[in-house]
Each structure stands twice: as structure tokens, then as C-alpha cells.
Model the fold of this input.
Amino acid sequence: MEKKNLDWANLGFGYMQTEKRYVSNYKNGAWDEGAIIDDANIVLNECAGVFQYAQTIFEGLKAYTTEDGRTVTFRPDLNASRLADSARRLEMPVFPEDRFIDAIEQVVKANMEYVPPYGSGATLYIRPYMMGTNPVIGVKPADEYQFRIFVTPVGPYFKGGAKPLTIRVSDFDRAAPHGTGHIKAGLNYAMSLHAIVSAHEEGFDENMYLDPQTRTKVEETGGANFIFVTKDNKLVTPKSDSILPSITRRSIMYVAEHYLGMTVEHREVYYDELQDFVEAGLCGTAAVISPVGKVVNKDKEICFPSGMDVMGDVTKKLYDTLTGIQMGHIEAPEGWIKTIC
Ligand SMILES: *Cc1c(COP(=O)(O)O)cnc(C)c1O
Done:
């Protein structure tokens, strides 16, 4: 299929409306068969559950063109099961995981003109989400839901390569209470906006959140997990019930162990250990890995030896291996790459 005539290499990370999206509705205890539709707008009752009690969850993944010209997605089964986990935690019906994969395939096929060509640095960002749609005024879950997926072509998250970030330790707690930190939901992002805006105002790229009980352990940032590299070449990444289980982080752990022969430690990470690490990074679908050069905690700074100019050597190796697997020039573990066409 002909591609759209877009300036792929110069796309930003923003929303560009495409012609087609996927929608399925849940009513009387069942999902309908779902369809690809044209209308980008949603009309809902003023009292819809999503507006009153924030019953909404989402996922984020990418479709892209491999070196040999296939259109693929990366581990969409993990997005399907994480959306199901988020739904259960917010008392929403689960959208069946096999139907989730099928819906991703349908919506990418319907938007093939927008899948960026290989080598452009751009990808098709895919945003599945679900919300409570019927009126709810007493505090309870909605009875009716809509599941949708839209797509939008996006450029590289960081233009001109990834410069190491400066992060501050946030005074704010990241997550809403009661362990909802491991749910991918707008409510957690809403709770993080004030911390993000104030971090940016003070010249920081992101917030590092500590565990709210003791404020001694590293959790994550607003939208990415942390990875660290030790002096003796181990990969260390924080473990906590209130960290969102990043698919990129889980993939990096596998790549570190099975492709780079590193020892991987997934465990509680104390803030006091940071000064001993030689490299740090943030990981998530949008940027894959962003190096972190410096962490600021009030008047104290921790500067990682990898510095403020380039990605650390180990971080770079992890980045190159994972993106090599995604783009098809390094052999992928069984089941990681889902070919759409
Ligand atoms: C989406 C998200 C991540 C990154 O997860 P990926 O599956 O790697 O994209 C990390 N933290 C939070 C809070 C998130 O919402």
C-alpha cells in the first residue's frame, strides 16, 4: 500500500489523527464483535463513569517496518495481559486477550499508510484504552464500557539522539494510594502531572519517585522504569508492587542475561546505593532507553561516571541489542515479534 506523503524523519512525538480506529462496546455483560470506524470523537453522557470516577485504563505499543519490509509489533501479548490486569484492578470487564491481539492487527492494517518506512526513525504508536461509559453517580463501577484503539505516527522520542537526563528526587509520591501504582491508568498520570510540571519549571527532565512508606527505596519515574549498571557489570532494576511492570524493562532484563551474558538483579534498590552505580537509564516503549546522567536530591547530586554527553557503554549495548531485535537485524527470542503483514 502507498504510504502517506509525510516528512517521516522530522515527525515529533505528538498526536496526528488518522482515518481509522477500532471500537468495541460492552453492554449487558458482553463485548460486541467490534469494528473499524471513522469517527475520532466520542460522545458520552455527562454522568459517564469515566468522567466522575476516572474509570479508564490504557496501553501503549508500537508498529514499525523491519529491515526486510514486514510490518510488526513487539510483544503485544504482554500489553494484552497488562490491560487485563489493569481492568481487574479497576473493576472493569477484561477485553479478551486474543481479541486484543486481533484488534491491534485490524487497526494497524486499516492504517498501513501511516506505518513509517524502515530507517526513518519513526514508528506507529498504538494506544488501546477502555473507559466506563454509562451514567454512574453513586460510587460504583460502570455497567457499560468502550474499548478503543487509535494510532498515530510518531518521531523518535528524543530528537538528535538521547542526551543524558537530569532527574530530581520528587517530594511527591507517584501513585494513587492502595497499590494502584502497577496499573496503567490515567489516574496515576493525573496524580503525577503537578510533580512533572514543577520538575520542568525547576529545570529537571523527570522525577525519581521513592517508596512512600520509607522514602529510602527507588521506585520509578512518571512513565518509565529505572535500570542501573554496577561497577562489576551487573544490571540492577528495582522491584516493588507499585512499579508499573514495563515490557521494555522485562525485555532488557532478558537481553542483558541471554544476549550480553550479564548478571541481572531484580530487587529492592535503596537510594543510598545509587552513588555506587556506573550507569543509569529510564526505559519504556516511547524512548526504549534514555540515559540518566545525574540525580539531584535537594542540595546533593549524584553524577554517574558515564557523564552528561553520551549513553554509557553498557546502556548503549542494551539499547542497540534490543532495537536490533525489534528491527529484525538480530534474531529475536521466540514470540517477541508479531508480524502483521
Ligand atoms: C507505560 C509505563 C511504563 C513503561 O512501560 P513499557 O511497557 O515499557 O512501555 C513505565 N512506567 C509507567 C508508570 C508506565 O505507565
